[in-house]
Amino acid sequence: MLRGFLMLAAFFGFTGVALGAFAAHGLKSRLTAEYLAIFHTGVTYQLVHTLALLGVALLASQMPGRLITWAGASFAIGILLFSGSLYLLTMTGISKLGIITPFGGLAFLVGWFCLGLAAWRLS
């Protein structure tokens, strides 16, 4: 899992920085202030959870287990659903995409819960 989570962290980190720069320079004049803020929220959550995914990758090499794997998978799914839905919402204007966002938030919560439970179980 170490390699997989590191690859995901690298991908999400790269795309998070690229999307943030794209929003700051390419979308500033094309999106309303509200949509730009929504896009920025997606980038922020993506980058924060990319760091969490990086931490999970390092933990997976030291204390492998299902909870660590679930945490990493949940963070990755959360990035795709939460941030991805916000990016699509702002780029397409389809407000119904907003119903996907809470599922990404729930995935983030599951990831943090699994990480906390794994820590609790340490001897």
From TrEMBL:
Q: Name one GO cellular component term.
A: plasma membrane
Q: Where are the transmembrane segments?
A: 36-60, 67-87, 99-120
Q: Which Pfam families match?
A: DUF423
Q: Does the keyword Transmembrane helix apply?
A: yes
Organism per entry = Pseudomonas silesiensis
Q: Does the keyword Membrane apply?
A: yes
Q: Its membrane topology, per UniProt?
A: Multi-pass membrane protein
Q: What is its main location?
A: membrane
Q: Which InterPro entries match?
A: DUF423 (IPR006696)
Q: List locations, semicolon-separated.
A: Membrane
> From which domain of life does this come?
Bacteria
In Swiss-Prot or TrEMBL terms, this protein is called DUF423 domain-containing protein
Instruction: Tell me which UniProt keywords the record has, alphabetically.
Output: Membrane, Transmembrane, Transmembrane helix
Record family assignment: Belongs to the UPF0382 family.
